């Protein structure tokens, strides 16, 4: 990871930390930044450990968005926990910190292209459409630990194997 990129993230972290300190009239320790989140998640805040974990691949591909959105998003979780205790992760307190203190849109999900970090998927079918399940969800179905249903039609998802695809053509 280039040191100049890490420095930009740290600058964003310090800027938003100062905004929170001014707003709440107290000082906060600097959270530890690590780059060890995998998958489609951009970042995770660990409240008790005062740590922010970031996805290094998505960061390299979306540097400015991480600086402007992901760092404030995750820091807002830490600040919210520190000031308000255990509350809903994206509840009114978190939205307040994002919008009023950090002047950032309180968006919950990122819109990054995740094709470079997308794991293997398996095709499933309901009555109205096909669904792609992650390998983790597919394995839960295989081990009969869970069943998934379509959020639109409500029917149970069934694995669509190659034979079914050929027969449906």
Automatic annotation (TrEMBL):
A GO CC annotation given for this chain: cytoplasm
One Pfam family from the record: SprT-like
InterPro entries per UniProt: SprT-like_domain (IPR006640), Uncharacterised_SprT (IPR023483)
Positions annotated to bind Zn(2+): 73, 77
A GO term, aspect molecular function: zinc ion binding
Keywords of this entry: Cytoplasm, Hydrolase, Metal-binding, Metalloprotease, Protease, Zinc
Keyword Zinc: yes
Cofactor-binding details, from the entry: Binds 1 zinc ion.
A biological process from GO: proteolysis
Domain SprT-like: 11-160
Catalytic site positions: 74
Keyword Zinc applies: yes
Main location: cytoplasm
SMART domains for this protein: SprT
Domain of life according to the entry: Bacteria
Compartments it resides in: Cytoplasm
Cofactor: Zn(2+)
UniProt similarity note: Belongs to the SprT family.
NCBIfam families registered for this protein in UniProt: PRK04860.1
Identification of the protein by name: Protein SprT
């Amino acid at each position: 990871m280039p040191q100049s990129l890490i420095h930009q993230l740290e600058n964003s972290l310090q800027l938003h930390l100062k905004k929170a300190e001014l707003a709440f009239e107290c000082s906060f320790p600097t959270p530890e930044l690590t780059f060890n989140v995998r998958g489609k998640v951009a970042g995770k805040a660990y409240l008790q450990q005062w740590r922010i974990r970031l996805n290094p691949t998505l960061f390299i591909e979306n540097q400015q968005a991480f600086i402007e959105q992901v760092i404030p998003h995750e820091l807002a979780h830490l600040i919210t926990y520190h000031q308000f205790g255990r509350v809903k992760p994206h509840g009114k307190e978190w939205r307040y910190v994002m919008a009023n203190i950090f002047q950032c849109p309180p968006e919950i999900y990122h819109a990054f292209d995740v094709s470079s970090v997308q794991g293997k998927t398996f095709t499933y079918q309901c009555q109205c459409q096909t669904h792609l399940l992650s390998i983790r969800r597919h394995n839960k179905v295989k081990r009969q630990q869970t069943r998934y249903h379509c959020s639109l039609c409500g029917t149970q998802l069934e694995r669509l194997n190659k034979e079914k695809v050929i027969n449906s053509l």
